Amino acid sequence: MVLTASSLAIAQTKLTPADAVRLALDKNQFLTAAANRIDSARGQALQAGLKPNTRLFLQVENARPPVSSPFRYESDTDNFAYLSRVFEAGGKRQRRAELGQENVKGAERSLDLQRAQVAVQVLNAYWNAAGARRLAQVLGDSLAVLGRTVEYHRIRVNEGALPEADLLRVQLEYQQVAIAHRNAEQDAKRLLQLLFREIGAEPDTAIELSGDLLTIDPPIDPGDLDTAIDRRPDVKLVRQSTEQAQANLRLQKANAVPDPEALFGYKRTMGLNTTVAGLQINLPFNNRNQGAIAAAAADVTAAGSTLRAARIAARTEIDAALGEYRQKRDLVEQMLPTLSNQANETRRIADAVYREGASDLLRLLDAERVRIQAETQQVRSLIDLRLASVSLQSALGLLP
Description:
Layout: H1 5-11, E1 14-15, H2 17-27, H3 29-48, E2 55-61, H4 73-76, E3 78-86, H5 92-158, H6 164-199, E4 208-209, H7 225-231, H8 233-255, E5 261-269, E6 272-280, H9 290-355, H10 361-395
């Protein structure tokens, strides 16, 4: 599969919905930025897991200018060279590393959510564009039918068999459908450009949208709702936020434990070589990191509440999307075929009766308008079904 806009235009002239989604996921710059944020989080996680560096101290004391008394550097100064090392207590490094990994997972979940959102936007734009093209085709076919009717009346008027007023009336109806057809053509071009904008590629009018609007896909089985909710990328992101909050709480508790700092090295004083050693510990009398711990604990509580709210909202969204999808599907499968067949049959009968002279022109034109309305309603209902299908797949966490 070709995944660049320029090579796609050269290699193929047809674009399926799956092609459009793959192309968008490959080229969307917002997704690229989100992927870069994952790399940033990985770098921060790597940094969080590093141990503190050992420090080297070089120190001289009692040095003075030899102004009034003789000064000998080797016997009158104290020289130090020692190493200092902080030993992290309470598992701080491990807790930092854990939080870093949770942040990486959070960035990955954020990317998954953005990918799903891009897929929804592209599929909605795709079916709107494909539906607009189909609607323009329907109006074009109706225009051709009316064109033959106009030609029939022109011949009959020239023969003196019909009044000129009938020809004018048919021509007026033709012009009205022609205007609707031109508007539909313009809508199809505009929506195609919007599709390429959602994809993130340059518009190419040579590419044909090959998605089959007329074929009804098998029904979508929602399955177990709890499983569907857990599968949704937005719920995964919120759940990951709770993991991050808990990891941060563990880190803040670890930060409350003082870190001992040990030093050991060499000291030369009064010409004698000696050793120096020491231990430094912060006494946790005032600052026990209690503020940061309280804030982190509040974040954990807030994240839990957000997760529960997200699951409730997800279930509500699934119920609404499922109801709309089933209503649109029933309309397309049960009502529209009968409506379309009746409209076509009414138009056929009205045309035959009119040509036999047993009916007037208005009945014929009314039948033609009903047929056009039925066909355009069918196309719009098919578009609505496709959009409802996309919404349901999104609500169930099935995209991209």
